[in-house]
Write a structure and sequence with these properties.
alpha/beta; single chain; 15% strand; globular; two-stranded antiparallel sheet; 11 helices; Rossmann fold
Length: 310
């Protein structure tokens, strides 16, 4: 359970920590530079605690343990590493318990719990939207909020989709599919359907937010880099009594027409230092999808820096 079938988890840890891991029965030998060996040891012990607690261990948990163990942010990552193996920690949803898989994710979860408005910024695959939806579902189950509202600007990502048939819901659903996917990962399908039908969970394009006041709700705006300044101001001023807002986006992935200013980029400048607003910035080191995604993000970032320096 700890080493994985044919030692596959040990192989993953070796690649991420730069060590050699050799098992002899119930004895594990760790060879490498002191700092790397200590990181591998910390990851192994956290995963062993997870096994002893009866919690599942898979490739995602192994990658998370390694990422947290080698993080430079020792205190935050240490706390997150402890949460990884604590069945009482993390966000509880109907289908799973979500724990942070990087130091930045741990800070993000703290911000989601403490601040009324949180900006989650960074590349794809870092868990910005997923963790925000998890926090919303957890608060809904606790009765701390009455509804969840998920929104995205309906902007085509460099493509022309043309005329979409069907009613309004069928027209906008393709843009909102990632939000539905996150919901289904945390709630049984029949409960998602029921809550959507009753309005307890609402998934709507950003244009539908105008003129509303959103009280006692958890409101998430995804792909916010594709909002205009006017749309962003409109959205942020919908915040009502007993509500929380999360805005997620990546300012390097703007799909607005050339020359159109991003509302997210402007908000980051205007709202810095405003009381009650938190900013959490992810990097390629926080990518928690397939390890190749992190390498792809770093390659594109390097290419962008090379073009800017040319």
């Amino acid at each position: 359970m700890l080493f994985g079938e044919h030692g596959q988890f040990l192989t993953r840890l070796e690649k991420q920590t730069g060590t050699r891991l050799m098992s002899r029965g119930n004895i594990l030998l760790i060879a490498g530079e002191d700092e790397s060996a200590q990181a591998a040891r910390a990851a192994i012990l956290a995963l062993w605690d997870r096994v002893k607690a009866g919690m599942p261990v898979g490739p995602g948990e192994v990658d998370a343990a390694a990422r947290l163990a080698i993080s430079a942010d020792v205190q935050t990552s240490g706390n997150a590493l402890a949460q990884l193996s604590d069945p009482r920690a993390g966000l509880k949803t109907k289908r799973r318990t979500i724990t942070p898989r990087s130091g930045t994710q741990a800070r993000y979860l703290e911000a989601l719990a403490e601040s009324e408005l949180v900006f989650g910024l960074g590349p794809a695959g870092t868990g910005k939207t997923y963790l925000a939806v998890a926090q919303a579902v957890s608060l809904l189950m606790q009765g701390s909020i009455e509804r969840i509202i998920l929104s995205r600007p309906a902007v085509e990502a460099g493509e022309r989709l043309g005329f979409l048939p069907g009613d309004m819901k069928e027209k906008v659903d393709p843009y909102l599919r990632p939000l539905y996917d996150a919901l289904h990962d945390m709630l049984p399908g029949d409960q998602v359907t029921k809550r959507l039908e009753t309005g307890v969970i609402e998934v709507a394009p950003l244009a539908f937010m105008r003129g509303r006041t959103l009280a006692h709700a958890f409101v998430i705006l995804d792909e916010a880099q594709n909002t205009t300044p006017m749309q962003m101001k409109m959205f942020l001023t919908r915040l009502g009594e007993g509500s929380r807002m999360v805005v997620t986006g990546d300012v390097t992935q703007i799909d607005l027409p050339t020359g159109q200013k991003s509302g997210l980029r402007e908000a980051l400048t205007i709202l810095r230092g405003v009381e009650g607003v938190s900013f959490v910035e992810f990097t390629d080191q926080d990518v928690v999808r397939h390890p190749l995604v992190g390498r792809i993000v770093r390659a594109y970032d390097a290419a962008d820096r090379a073009r800017e320096g040319a």
